[in-house]
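Lab notebook, bench 4. Still working through the backlog of constructs that have no structural model yet. Next entry is a single chain of 457 residues. Request: give me the structure tokens for it.
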Amino acid sequence: MAKMWAGRTDGNTSKMADDFNSSIHFDKRMYKEDITGSMAHAAMLAKQGIITDAEADILIDGLDGILADIESGKLDFDPDSEDIHMFVEEVLTARVGEVGKKLHTARSRNDQVALDIRIYLRSEIDTITPKLKALISALADKAEEYKATIMPGYTHLQRAQPITFGHHLMAYAMMLLRDIDRLSDCRARMNYSPIGCCALAGTTYDTDRRFEAEKLGFDGICMNSLDGVSDRDFALELMSDISILMMHLSRFSEEIILWSSWEFKFVELSDAFTTGSSIMPQKKNPDMAELVRGKTGRVYGDMIALFTTLKSLPLAYNKDMQEDKESVFDAIDTVIACIDIFARMISSMKANEENMLAAAKGGFINATDLADYLVKRGLPFRSAYKISGGIVADCIRSGCVLDNYPLEKYKAASELIEDDVYEAISLKTCVEKRISEGGTSVASVEKQIAYVREQLK
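Model written out:
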């Protein structure tokens, strides 16, 4: 079948070449953006006197009908069409006649596809952001529930200092807030219109690019036509931001996987978000968290694929750039699915407070507080550190913990220690006296929750 671009060649490509060249099977998801962009283009052409108002009305009405028919299911995508742009134009021309052929005046598929993908990705950011907010809200609610629940905090995956579970959860809320900020920044840089750049050099027609950009909700226009059609920085930036977001979810997934194991038993995941084993009846597997962790690598791969595609392309448009869409579409689909499942998994997760407390008591994580106790009585920190370390070593040898270490042994280690040491190093005291802003005390966690909820507004 001859193509609409036939002229320099006869347009009769082989079926194999058509299939290899075609993008309709994945870029059809941009049908709304393509049609909306074409409506704005027709309005601009009429405003500038390039076509008549009557012709613009015919084009816009025809496009509106195509949009309605696609969304109702009355019109199916033609798999033999080269891409979504050609499909829409072919259907339009079949419906309205010769005037349909005027729609493509003063534009190219190069700037048309650049326009469509910017509008589409802008919309996807607007979809991801409220989903992220819902996840952060779920974290804030869970942090409120467990704001006083003591657990061990870790460095090097070794028990380090006592914290609250609410404090730990709020760390991820802060990460996700930054993800929202990054997406917002990306959207702002993305929101400039390439339409009117045409193939690469602009057009001889007296167009009004700013009028068309404003009708489509852009903040301005791409100021260089070569850059306008060849720029995919916005897609790379979005995929980078999504990759960071997925890294945050993956780190959290790793902790949930550890916490839900019998070795930790810190949390219990809802049956709705776990699976069993085909041969081991005792198993309750954290498959959703594992899949999020695994899908992070998939999103990284999508990002690297696009970076690699673009790294050596000369200006301006090259067919290689058709490869941008599948990668970015897959990354977006993946992150949306992960956020949705994660929010529900977190909302239904229960903490095993007794196990968390027992682990905190067993790891000498109040040793720093013992050293601080001695410092407050006039001992230099390094000396206090050495004494505390010696007491911990003796506890390990004698099979006890700091909370029940005999007072006479404390006094033998340092004459500065009195019987108030037990209150000073109790886990509850250790947590509550960490009053610095951003710390783990209940009051501090409450402030963090209030801050996050205010940001979500």
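Notes after review: The chain has 19 helices and six strands. The mean pLDDT is 95. Flag for follow-up if needed.
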